C-alpha cells in the first residue's frame, strides 16, 4: 500500500533527523539540534534573536536562553549591534564555522551512503532535488509569519 505523501515525508524526515543526530554525536560530539541552530546562524549571519527565532520556529525567549551556553562553548559571539541600540548581533566563531563545514560534509556523505551510487539515477535525484526545492519555496511563500 502506498502511504500518503505527507505521512511519508514526515517519516523520511524523522529517520533522516535521527541518522543525522547519530552521526553528528558520534563524529563531532554535538546533537543535530545544536547543528541546526548553528547552521541557521551561518545562513543568516550577522543575525539577531528575532530573526533566529523566526527561522527556528521557536520563541525569542528560547533563543535568548540558549545563547550564553553557545557563547561559553565558543560556537558564537554575541554583542551589541552598532546600527541598533537594543539589538544583539549574533555570529559564528571560527570554531562554529568549522563545525558547520565538517558537519555538512558528514551529513552529505551519510546521505550518499544511504542512497548508494548504484541505486539512484543521477537524473532522478536531480528531479527530486528540484521537487523539494519547489515545495520548500511554495511553503515559504504561503506560510504565516511565525512572530
Automatic annotation (TrEMBL):
<protein>
    <submittedName>
        <fullName>MarR family transcriptional regulator</fullName>
    </submittedName>
</protein>
<dbReference type="InterPro" id="IPR000835">
    <property type="entry name" value="HTH_MarR-typ"/>
</dbReference>
<dbReference type="InterPro" id="IPR039422">
    <property type="entry name" value="MarR/SlyA-like"/>
</dbReference>
<dbReference type="Pfam" id="PF12802">
    <property type="entry name" value="MarR_2"/>
</dbReference>
<dbReference type="InterPro" id="IPR036388">
    <property type="entry name" value="WH-like_DNA-bd_sf"/>
</dbReference>
<dbReference type="InterPro" id="IPR036390">
    <property type="entry name" value="WH_DNA-bd_sf"/>
</dbReference>
<feature type="domain" description="HTH marR-type">
    <location>
        <begin position="2"/>
        <end position="137"/>
    </location>
</feature>
Amino acid at each position: 500500500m502506498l502511504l500518503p505523501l505527507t505521512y511519508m515525508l514526515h517519516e523520511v524526515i524523522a529517520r533522516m533527523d535521527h541518522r543525522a543526530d547519530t552521526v553528528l554525536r558520534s563524529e563531532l560530539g554535538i546533537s543535530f539540534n545544536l547543528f541546526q541552530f548553528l547552521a541557521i546562524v551561518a545562513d543568516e549571519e550577522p543575525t539577531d534573536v528575532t530573526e533566529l527565532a523566526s527561522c527556528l520556529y521557536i520563541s525569542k525567549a528560547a533563543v535568548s536562553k540558549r545563547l550564553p551556553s553557545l557563547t561559553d562553548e565558543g560556537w558564537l559571539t554575541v554583542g551589541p549591534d552598532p546600527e541598533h541600540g537594543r539589538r544583539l548581533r549574533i555570529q559564528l566563531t571560527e570554531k562554529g564555522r568549522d563545525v558547520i563545514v565538517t558537519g555538512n560534509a558528514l551529513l552529505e556523505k551519510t546521505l550518499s551512503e544511504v542512497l548508494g551510487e548504484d541505486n539512484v539515477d543521477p537524473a532522478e535525484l536531480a528531479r527530486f532535488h528540484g521537487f523539494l526545492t519547489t515545495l520548500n519555496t511554495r511553503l515559504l511563500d504561503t506560510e504565516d509569519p511565525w512572530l
